[in-house]
Amino acid sequence: MSDQKQGPTRHGVGEIMSQAVVHGGTVYLSGQVAGDGSTTVAGQTRDVLRQIDELLATVGSDRSRLVSVNIWLRDIADFDEMNGVWLEWVEGIEPPARATVQSQLAGEQWLVEIMAVAAV
Hints:
single chain; 120 residues; alpha+beta; seven-stranded mixed β-sheet; 28% helix; 32% strand; globular
């Protein structure tokens, strides 16, 4: 039976969302924020990208299979700091489509949030 007939498979299911949903050969990750909101934009970005790597591995994918990424920054003035970490992370792969915007995030401690879509 194909994945589409089976419906979505959810991973890391919580009360308000799943951390990852796989459907039709694609994984959709929820917005990821740093576990430690007291660090810098660079530190939070590294933590979020590590979480994305872990979630992708959980479903049998990896960053080289990313299709699309959305990045929200509390302050767009932090773009260069975040982007420096991003460039290290995507080095050696063809990067996904990406958008980066300034946004008020759900908690004052969070400086960056990243949501991703990848092929499985």
